[in-house]
Amino acid sequence: MSALKPTSLDIEPGDYLVVTGTSGSGKSTLLNLIGLLDTPTGGRYLIHGVDVARVSEGERCAIRGRMFGFVFQAFHLLPARSALENVEMGMLYNGRSRLERRRVAMDALARVGLADRIDADPRSLSGGERQRVAIARAVAGSPRVLLCDEPTGNLDSVNTRAVLDLIDELHRDGLTVVLVTHDEDVARRGKRRVVVHDGQVVEVSRVARASWTSWVWRPHASGRATWSGNARRPCCGIGADHYLRRLARCLGRRRSS
Amino acid sequence: MLGAASFVVTLGLVSTLERQVSDAFDLRRATEVRIEASPGMDRSWHREDRLLRVRALNGVESAGWRVMPIEIGLTRLPQNPPVNVQLMGADPQAVAVMGPRVVAGRAYDWFHETTEQKVIMLAKPMADRLGVPRPGGAVFVGDTAFTVIGIYDAVERRPEAMLGGMVPASVMAGIAPTTPTDVLISTVPGAAQLIAEQAPVVLWPERPSALRAIAPPDPRTLRREIEGNVTRSSLILSAVALIIGAVSIANSATAAIQARTAEIGLRRAVGGRPVHVFAQLLGETTALGFLGGFVGVCAGVTVVAVVCLWNRWAPVLDLWVAAVAVVASATTGLLAGLWPARRAVRVQPVSALQH
């Protein structure tokens, strides 16, 4: 049994892709494969031309940490740590110094409107605030892509609106967003929509919002997903682009030897 | 923590008890020498002036001659059926060596010895059997009456003295003229081996080889053997305690890591490599082991101190035991964390996040 059937999907920088579908259709599996949280059993997954389905676990971790930020429905905040420490954890493996992590985390919390709650225990925060902390953690590491899995699933309508506004704002600043949801209102926020049904991408459509016109969809015969183009966001330390270029050279050397 | 505490307590108490056992051993057993003649020898080697020279040897506390116990019938009244007891003759110095604890009356002295007074000291069980409630009465050996001068209920040495009684050696020599004799000597602690070498020469300079000195084994050797055995046993006990501690830490580590599966998934999601998570989990179990070991050592030292204070013992605890306990606990934590940490990093991040 396969959770996701052979499919092809291109994501361009600056996309706001919404993945919808019924429960158990495979949309979260698709998101996990995009975010390298899961390993595909077949097919190719190209990021800047590097087939990341074939690289080692360590390399996948390095790409994941530099390329993607995650926002989960269940927030996944560490209960015994403050909001600031939770955000700092998002940069723990990025090679930043402790001082820099702290500074960036404070900036990220200020950006999501929680500058006054940096010392708060996540258990004392409301659902909306927790999700904003999670978003701050996801973007603090300067990822290229923000992957959101049902980010508003546990929130009321007011907090849902606030969180989605925040994601919209991050996208307007240049962040690529892939968002999984089964909520039609949430799905309308996206630029493109992918519908997954029984593990098959059955429909890719442009959302009817006049200002967004640039999207690319290139179906392939064999299962393949690509990420192409140059990222525009700056990144501290060794960035995703630099790392992937180095990895591509390394893989080329491995093949030739 | 429990492993380290039991390690320290076991070794600490055993070290202290070793000292107590050794002290008791030295005082009671290692201070007695018995000199006897080869079988078939008469009493010609037995001379009082030579015994005086033995008493003058450095390290001798008491030395006296004794007529070996023989079975003899005693009666409360001549017409009563006799009760068989082990009766021995001992001069006052030999009595001092045996150290009877007199509970009624007194021990006989040199007056009774030199004037061959017919007095007898009875062991309490024998006095009860004969129906002698207190000193002053008489018991009979055949038709000869002996005045009961004292009753004792325990002896420090020569437990055979509890099987009957003792009379002056000069009197016993008359009752059993052919019974072999020996010399009983008590020494200061540590002198028994030396006295066992010197006494035969002093007692019979012409033929010292005809006498046999029976001394306890060299107390230092025996003490080392006993201490070695006790230490080995305690180390085995401590190892068992540490193994129990290791299993307990492994269980706790497995449970703690299991409870943190989602956190592990999150760390992997933000770019943590398996080696990062592995090192972190191992570091945590090692630190936990170290901390538990430190607390355990403090608890163990406290228990040893309290037990020693309670019993008025001098606590004996080497510092290396504390150091070994802490290091062993940290190592145990490290080893105990290996398996759960290895299992944790093998879980796919997505599975861990769904936990």
Describe the structure concisely.
The complex is a heterodimer of chains A (257) and B (355). With 257 residues, chain A is of the alpha/beta class.
Folded structure, characterized:
The complex is a heterodimer of chains A (257) and B (355). Chain A has a single domain (8-256), classed as P-loop containing nucleotide triphosphate hydrolases (Rossmann fold, 3-Layer(aba) Sandwich), CATH 3.40.50. In chain A, the strands form two sheets. A six-stranded mixed β-sheet of chain A has the order 5-6-7-2-8-9, with helices on both faces. A four-stranded mixed β-sheet of chain A has the order 1-10-3-4. Chain A has eight helices and ten strands. Chain A has helices at residues 27-34, 57-67, 83-89, 98-111, 127-140, 157-172, 184-187, 240-256; strands spanning 8-11, 16-21, 44-47, 50-51, 68-72, 145-149, 176-180, 192-197, 200-206, 224-227. Chain A is α/β, with parallel strands linked by helices and 257 residues long. The N and C termini of chain A lie far apart (37 Å). Chain B has 355 residues and is an alpha+beta fold. Chain B folds into two domains: 2-22 and 221-353, no CATH class; 31-215, no CATH class. Helices cover 55% and strands 20% of the residues of chain B. Chain B is built from twelve helices and ten strands. In chain B, a hairpin with an 8-residue loop joins strand 2 and strand 3. The longest helix of chain B has 41 residues, at 219-259. The two termini of chain B are 30 Å apart. The A-B interface holds A 32, 35, 37-39, 57-58, 61-62, 64-66, 70, 72, 76, 78, 89-94, 137, 141 and B 262-263, 265-276, 348-350, 353.
